[in-house]
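user:
I keep going back and forth on a fold encoding question. Separate attempts, laid side by side, tell us more than any discussion would. Would you put together a sequence-and-structure record for a protein of your own picking? Write it directly below this note and I will take it from there.

assistant:
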Amino acid sequence: MNKFCNFLVPSVFKTFRPVQMQKQRILNKVLSLTSHKTISVNYNNKNESYWCKTQRRTFICEANTISCITYENIQDEMKEWLLESVDTKYINLLKDDEKISALNRILLVHCLEHFYFSKYPCTIKSIFDSDIAIPALCSLIDKGIENSADTFLIGSSQTNKIIEIAKLLNVEAEQIIKDIVEVGHVSEINDESLQLNESVKKDNYSVHLINPTNSPSTIYPLLLGKTKALQHSRNDNNNSHIWSISCYSSAELNAKNIYMEISTLSKLGEYNLGGTIHIILNHETESSLSSKGFTCNNLKKLAESISAPIVHVHADDVVSVMNAMQFAADYRTIYKKDIIINFIFSNVNLSIEENVLLSNWIKSFISYGRIPLVTSFMNELVKDKVISRKECDDKRNFYLKKINKLFADSKGFMKEKHLLDLKRLENLFTDKVSSETLSTGISRDEINNICNALCTKPSFTIPKETEKLIDKRQELIDRGLLDWELCETIAYANLMKEGINVRLTKSKKSIYPRFMINDKSNGNYFNQLDEIYRTVGKYSWYEFIGSPSCIAGVQIGYSTVNTNTLSVWEVPETVTPQQLHEIVHDYFQNDNTDGFNNFGMVLIVPYYLREKGNTTNRCRIHPDKIIDMCQETSLSTNIAEQFYFCNAIIANLSKPSNFYHILKRQAKGIWQRPLIVFVPNNFEITNDKYHCSFSDIEQNTSFQSYIDDPLFNNSEINENIKNIILCTGKIYYSLIEARSERKLDNEIPIVRLEQISPFPYNEIVKGIEKFPNAVIWWAEEDDYLNGWWNFIESKFYTFYGCKIKLKYAGQHRKNASTLLSKEDLSSIFTNLQKDNFEKELK
């Protein structure tokens, strides 16, 4: 008997190699950490298998097959299938052609890694933190295709290097994965056995890599949202054709409670994906297992929360890995449930300094005499006469030669493509349609029809809050006025009339039902638009329970798929400023040159957030942290160019009609970029002069990124004006009241900046040039260090240089209150008048 079990080696064998002894110790630690009672081990010489049983778990250890399985969390019928399948279907060794297929993939990954190291010699990690991970994923894709799947979404923070290699070779990152899949189907090498070009062959399946962001905790929410969007758009109602695969390292699993986020999201019924295959790259050393065992404990908690079995497999055993992948694919196909694959690596115990200095392939040499996986597996196949040494060398040389040739050819092609892109962008930026402001107004008849529908009360009993809301709507409409809630609801209704779906995520405490009225008698919802204003698009809303980061990630992932849907998240007041900053930092890339932010999600953020545990006190958002994470062209006055290069749109609104227009523009605009829009808390501004009229949203109207003072709304140049107040958001209303009290209405124009980023240079220039002798005063509620001031100042000086006269008129100190006091407002106008007096003295 010359075959050894992966981990548990029976005592009858007297010859132990160090690696096998380490395998045995590691598995014993894994089992001891995941079981409740002492494990008894019995060896059966007949079938070379080990059964390790506890009261709640059963581990199956097979020679050269799956190492062990933890299945206490699954139903009895699944256990019967699992035991029967492992005993019969997954105990056979791979055939020779399957071994060659695995070798081809491992060898190609090795060559890609060699190529990457030649370009970045200081890199200390392999492409995927493991030689076997990508070939294992390819084997999973193969089996999934056999089981009628045609789309695979892979979420992992370790795809960064694959994307970098794709850039070097000028191909799509997904195409590299597909070529590794295809190379496993080729037995002999030839010119067509490696084609890193998506135009060469039309495949019957697709692969999507979830673009890595700044935090591994964002991977699963993005994966969940994008997978569900694809399933909706392709009508995959039984979740059979679109699969989701997540891959985490043990360090990532132990950080930021990723397993808790997966657990929370998996319990949402409307986001059931039909099972996700979770792959864990467990690099935890034996000392970690014996002292703390974070990975084992987290795996146990994760498996219990999502009711998934765990397949433990040694990553160095190619046969076991491939069998585990086939088992996972069949389990997902039959039961449509989550399953966890735990790749356990035999790592030597190195210090932190050694882990930093030594790359993976060097560590593999000093780890008890281990050699790289590609070499060990190749030696095994050569020894078994499955393939010759010469054939292996020929394959390796061919792959390296092909990759280097593609790299050499890509340089000229990249230059040519870059010129073509510049020409295409130049034509697009000069195109009249894309460079003009999008008209988003609707006819008066459309407005009347929507308003009639929104004021219709159903015959059944409705909540008192909803009844008050309908009465309030009717009162405003009778006077020809629209508030924030009405403008938003009209925007959604009109978009649905035009065939665009609206998807709203809100907290349970949200009191605005839009046009969905709840029947108190049976809990059903009635759509007010059905009777009077029939729509084509669908309206759906979700009351999400989970961390803000999870909510944002799912909605962003959903909006990355072109489903003709406007995805909106109403950020609750209970979100802390730090959480909001983390969301922007983690999900919105600082550089949009690679199209990372090609999604049109809307974040509706209240002006103020509530302090934790306090329902009355408010806390500042600190917009400087948000605007610092956004990027745009340093100086561009072309609208199309601004939206192309920016990575997010930031708006701080003061007018309800602008809220309507920006939602319409976001859904119908050419460029898809995330929108962060600040609005009043619970639409609390109720004074009539802060509302808008029907004419503000009628035809031939559009979003106003800059709004002139209505008292100075003419095109004539006024040289007598000495000061202008420029502001953004709700502070506008406080400023006009303070100006009126001081009888300065005809002396100081107050203009509004509604869109912060991209900065509206054209509109600003047109508005300010009417007052050539005026000093521009920037006023805001935040102090000058934590507000918009630094961004505004940089934009003005970038455009005007030293010619501009720009000063700050807001709070110069940090204030505990979020609202401007009367003293603050008085100081703003005092500064203006003091400045004028000093000029007159000079």
User: Anything to note?
Assistant: The chain has a mean pLDDT of 77. The chain has 30 helices and 28 strands. The longest strand covers residues 242-249. Residues 389-429 form the longest helix (41 residues).
